[in-house]
Amino acid sequence: MKNYIKHDPWKIIEEGFDMKNHTASESLFSLGNGRFGQRANFEEKYSGKSLPGNYVAGVYYPDKTRVGWWKNGYPEYFAKVLNAPNWIGINVNIEGEELDLAKCKVSDFERILDMKEGYLHRKFTAELPSGKKVKVDAKRLLSMTDDETAVIKYQVEALNFSGKISFTPYIDGDVKNEDANYDEKFWDEVGKEVSGNEGYITVTTKKTDFHVCTGMKIKLFLDAKELEIKPQALVKDKYIQTRIDTEIQKGQTLCLVKYAAITSSMNYEKHEVLGACHKALVRACAKSFETMLKEQAHWWQAKWEHGDIIVNGDVAAQQGIRFNIFQLNQTYTGEDERLNIGPKGFTGEKYGGSTYWDTEAYCLPFYLATAEENVSRNLLKYRHKQLDKAIENAQKLGFKNGAALYPMVTMNGEECHNEWEITFEEIHRNGAIAFAIYDYVRYTGDKAYLAEFGLEVLIAISRFWSQRVSWSEAKKQYVMLGVTGPNEYENNVNNNWYTSKIAIWTLKYAQEALEYVKQTEPTRYTEILEKTNFNFKSENEKWSDIIENMYFAYNEELKVFMQQDGFMDKEQILAKDLPMAERPINQNWSWDRILRSVFIKQADVLQGIYLFEDEFDMDTIHRNFDFYEPRTVHESSLSPCVHSIIASKIGDNKRAYQFYLRTARLDLDDYNNEVHEGCHITSMAGTWMSFVKGFGGMRIKNDKPYFAPYIPEEWESYSFKVNFRQVILQIFVSKNEISIHNLSEKSIQLTVFDKDYNLNAKSKISV
Ligand code: BGC
User: Assuming Cys at both sites, which of 79, 275, 313, 572 could form a disulfide with 411, CB separation 3.0 to 4.6 Å?
Assistant: First the structure.
C-alpha cells in the first residue's frame, strides 16, 4: 500500500518527485477521451523506469498464443489493444544537455490531475548536471468535445542562465507492447511527412491492418509572443520529428504548444485517414490551447452536473469516488457500439484492453444510472453482435444446437483467453451477459429489447447451460462439473454454487422472456423460434427439469451455501490470521498453495447473494457473509465493492465503510501493490455501486426506484444523482435528513424505506 497522493476533493496531487513512484503515477494520472488515451508519461526524455502507453480504442492486434502445453480448444491468438504511436514527446536540450528528470536535481515537483476540468498539469524545477536551472510547467488534455484531437502546452523558464535551447517534438510509431508474446513489434509504416512545424505519420497494424494516422503541429511563444520558427525535420523508420533551435535569456519563458490529432480506419476508409487527421489538426489549431481547455472544462462541468457524488466531511472518500467516476467517463463514452471497457481502460496493457464479464456485472449499472439510455443499450448490443462468434466458440468445445459460450476475454467476439481452467471452465461469465439483459430491461423499462435482441442471446446461453449440466445417477440431480467460479483461487471444482445459481436463473429468465415475446410480439416470436430452430416443447421441458432438479451444495450445520463440493475439507483458517508479509498471497505464495487453501480471491457465493438478494432472507445473507468474508483476501479489485454493498444491506455499516474506502481508493492508495500496471477501471464502477446501492440503498423494485439510504458515521452529508427513465433524481442524506429531489419535468413514483411516494416534477420530499 502506498500513501503519497495528497487528499483533495477535485484533484489528484503528487508532490515531490520520487522515481520509485513514477510508474504508479503514470497509471494514476492517465488521460483518455473514450476514443484514445494514454498513461501519464513525461513529454521530455526520461531515462528512468517508465511504462510508455498510448492506446487507440478498438485498434488491436491478434498476438499469437503462447502457452506451455497446448490444449484443444485454445484460441490461436490473444487480441490486445496496442501501444500506439507516442505523440506526446517533446525533447528539450539546453546548451547540449538533455532535460531528463532521472539525471537532474528536481525540486518543487507537482503532478496534478484536475478532475473538474479534465486536464493533466505538471510543474517542476530541474537543475541540470551543469548547474543550469529551468522551471517547467506542462499541461495537456485529450479533448472530450472533439475526440480526435489533443493538445500540450509546455513552458520552460530559464532561471539562472541565458543560452541555446532546442525543442524536439516528435511522434514515435516505433513502439512495442510490453506484453508482446514474441517480443514482436505490431506496427508497419504506411507513410509519413513533415514540413515546417507540421507532421504526420500513418502506421498499420500487422495482420489486422488497422490504419492509424497521428499528426502534430507546433507553435512557439516567447513570453506570450508567437515566434516565427524554422524547424528542421528528421524522419526515421516509423518516426518523425521537427527540431526547433532557439535562444532563451535568463528570466524568459518559452512556451511550446503541440497540437495533436489521431484518426483511424475504425472511422474512415484507409485512404481517408491521413486527410481526416489533417482536418482534425486544423480544427484544433484554429482554437488556442485556452479555448480547448475551456471547452474541456465545459464538457466536464456538464458531466459532473449529472454524475457527481458529493461527500461532505471526508476528503479521502470524496477524492476516491470522484477519481473513479472521472476514470470511467474518460474510458468509455458509449457513443460507439463497437467499443467496450477494458479492465485497465487506457491506463495499462494488462488484460489486453479487451472485454470481460466486468462490463456486464460491474460497469452496466453505472452507465444505466449516469448516462443516456443508448449508452447501456450499446453495451448490450455489443454482445448481441457477437452472438454468432459465441456460438462458434461453444461449438469448438463440443456444444451443439446454437448453444453459446461468450468468451472470457474478447475484442471481436472470439475467445482470446488461454488457460484451460478459465477459458473452458470460468463459464459463469455467460450468466452475467444474460443478467445484464434483465438488469437493463428492469432499469429502463425497455422491454422491447427482448424481442429485438435479448431473447436470441438468452436462448443461446440457456442452451449452453442445459448442455453443460450433467445428470448424476448417484444424486438423482443435475450437477455442474469442472468449473471455476468467480474465485479464481480455486479451479476445476464441482458444483460451484454461484455458477449453478446463475445458470438456473438464466433458464428461468429465458422462459419468462419467451413467454413475454410470445404474448407481445407473436410474429417476431415465430421468427426467432424459426431463426434459432428452437424446439419449444423439448427444450423448454428440459430447462424446467433442470430448474427443478439442480443440485446445490449446502452445509446443514452452518446453514450456509457451499461455494463448491468439498469446501469444508479445507483447513478453515481466516484471512485476518495471515501475516501481512505474506499478502497479497498471489505475490507471495506458490499457486499450488493458493489452490489448496481456503482463501477466496473475490466474492463468489456472495456475488450470487448480491445479484439474487430478493431470494434470501436477512439471516441467510448475514450467515453467508459472516462465513465467507473472513475467508476472502479481496485480491481481485472486483471484490470489496460487492462486500460493501452486502455489508450495507445487513446493517454492518462499519465494514461497509471500510470496504467502500478500499474500493474507492484501491488505486490511489495502491492496496494490492500493482497500480504501476494500470488502474482498475471496471472495478471503479463497483465503487460507484457500493455508494449508490450500498449507502443509498438504491434498487429497482416493481418498476420503480427504491432507496434505503444511510450515512456512514464519518461523514456529515452526501448526495448523488441518478437518472431513471428520463427523470433525474438527486438524493441528499445527512445525519438528520434524507431528501429526494426530482430535478426533471416529469413526475415519478418511487419508494423510500418501503413507503411509496409520488414525486411531482421539480419537487422534493424529505423523509
Ligand atoms: C478477476 C476477474 C476479472 C478480471 C478482469 C481478474 O483478476 O478475477 O473476475 O474479470 O480480473 O478484471
Answer: 79
